[in-house]
Structure formats: C-alpha cells, structure tokens
Amino acid sequence: MKKLRRSARLVDMTQHLLAHPHTLTPLTLFAEQYGAAKSSISEDLSIIKEAFEVQGVGLLKTVAGAAGGVKYIPQVKTEEALHFMRELIGQLANPERLLPGGYLYMSDILGNPQTMAKIGKLFATAYADKNVDVVMTVETKGVPLAYATAMFLNVPVVIVRRDNKVTEGSVVSINYVSGSSKRIQTMSLARRGLAEQSRVLIVDDFMKAGGTLRGMIDLLQEFRATVVGCGVLVETTADVSERLVDEYVSLAKLQDVDFKGKQIEIELGSFFEKRGE
C-alpha cells in the first residue's frame, strides 16, 4: 500500500475501526499496512479515541500484551439517545397508528434504514459487555431490528420461523402460548442455525405479555444456549400482571391507548431507567 500522510492514515484507520466493531485489531496490522512505527500508530489511535469519545461515537479500548491491540465499542451518549427516542415517540404517538388489539402500526419506522441503525446502536450499547455471539428474532417485523443490532455487535443474525421451511433442513420446533391472545402457536429453528451453548441476544419490535419472547427463550434451551438479554422497541404496560418475561430492555413504553378519544400515551422505556433518566 502506498504510504499515506498522517491525516489520510487517520481517516483510513477510523474507517477500519467503524467497519469492524467489537473486533480486536493488532497494532502490528496497522503498522505493517501503513509502514509506520508502532509508536506512531499508538499516537494516531489516541487521537481517534479522543474524537470518538467527544463525538459520542463510542469507545476505543486498548488490549495490552503481545496479542493485544485495539477494539472499537459502539456507544450512544444518553443525551443523544434521549433526543432520538423523544422524536421517535412523537411519531409513534400519532393516533393514525392505532391498530385493533392495542397494537401500533410501525412498518414505516421498521423500514427506515437510518432509524433502524440508531435503534440497533442503542441495543448494542445496552448489551455491549455481554459477549453476544448471535442476535435472534422471530419473523418478520423483528428482522430489521435484529440486523441493525447485529451490525453494531458484529455478530450473525438467527431468525426463528413460525412454520417449517424445506430449505432449513432439520429443525427444532416448540409450541408456546401467546401471552396476549392465549393461543397455542408454533415456532421453529434450524438445527444448523445456531451453535450449541451460544450467547444469544433476543430482540423484537413489540411486546405485550411477552409470549413470543418466552417462546424464544424456551426454544433456546433446546440448544443449551444462554440468553444474555432481551431488547424490545416498544412494550405495552397493559398486561404487566401477566408478563411472561421479567428481564428485558425496552426503548419505549406504551402506557395507555384511548380508542374513543384517539389518544396514545407513550413514555421512555427501561433503557433510560438504567441510565438515571
């Protein structure tokens, strides 16, 4: 590679780190790539580290030792998260989003790549220290959330199906009770889709009583996997007494729906409770 000036080298190193979150990059790799001394690379990384922290991009962690290096950890500042979620809650509170059964229309939001990226980074921030191996969701609306989160954690996505697909091969299926409708439903996951004893982060777009999340948690027992957390975009507080999942992080809470008056009351979720909001 042609030797770069320091300014160009800083840009190139920054792009590399942003494209490889949660990945240890040895200093020797940068030194050899740019034909620079390790001491110069260390100085460059100090500049990038300061810029990341000031701009709220994330953290740059240094791992000492012969096999050490640097690792970029995506993070969102609380102030930035609050600003984004207050704007998003404003959109969600539009009465035209009301659907039968106390649900909200969110397909336009889930289909917006920029919005998904910001939500994914919030979940990645909440579970940055959980050593996640894979992000799981159930088809179909949770899929954009899962991919956005997995991008910032730099891990694969596993999608649980509601019916068997011949292209999936051998599958593990379980029956579960929907927390809201009380109906028995089925979900399945290909045996090849998840390595045993994986550390799994579950994400979903909407939670009422938590039946779907509970189903995924039970399904993961068949793979001897560890559930490191559950993240939901919007939870409703209507069925709290019947909640089937206790440990989870929500970004927004649907507190009350007045169908007659066409009013939606939404508040910040538990993500912010953990940050003193």
Descriptive notes:
- The chain has 277 residues and is of the alpha/beta class.
- The protein contains 9 helices and 12 strands.
- The strands form 4 sheets. A 6-stranded mixed β-sheet has the order 6-5-9-10-11-12, with helices on both faces. Strands 1-2 form a two-stranded antiparallel sheet. Strands 3-4 form a two-stranded antiparallel ribbon.
- Strand 9, helix 8 and strand 10 (226-236) form a beta-alpha-beta unit.
- It is globular.
- The N and C termini lie far apart (48 Å).
> How big is the Rg?
21 Å
Output the helix-strand order. Answer: HHHEEHEEHHEHEEEEHEEEH
Task: Report helical residue fraction.
Answer: 25-40%
> What is the topology, as strand order, of the major beta sheet?
6-5-9-10-11-12
Structural class: alpha/beta
Low-confidence regions: none
What's the helix and strand layout?
Elements: H1 6-19, H2 27-34, H3 38-55, E1 58-63, E2 69-74, H4 78-92, E3 98-99, E4 103-104, H5 107-110, H6 113-126, E5 134-138, H7 143-153, E6 157-160, E7 171-177, E8 184-190, E9 199-207, H8 211-221, E10 226-236, E11 249-258, E12 263-268, H9 270-273
Parallel strand pairs: 5-6, 5-9, 9-10, 10-11
Antiparallel strand pairs: 1-2, 3-4, 7-8, 11-12
Give me a quick take on this structure.
The chain is built from nine helices and twelve strands.
Descriptive terms for the model:
single chain; 277 residues; alpha/beta; 6-stranded mixed beta sheet; two-stranded antiparallel ribbon; 12 strands; 27% strand
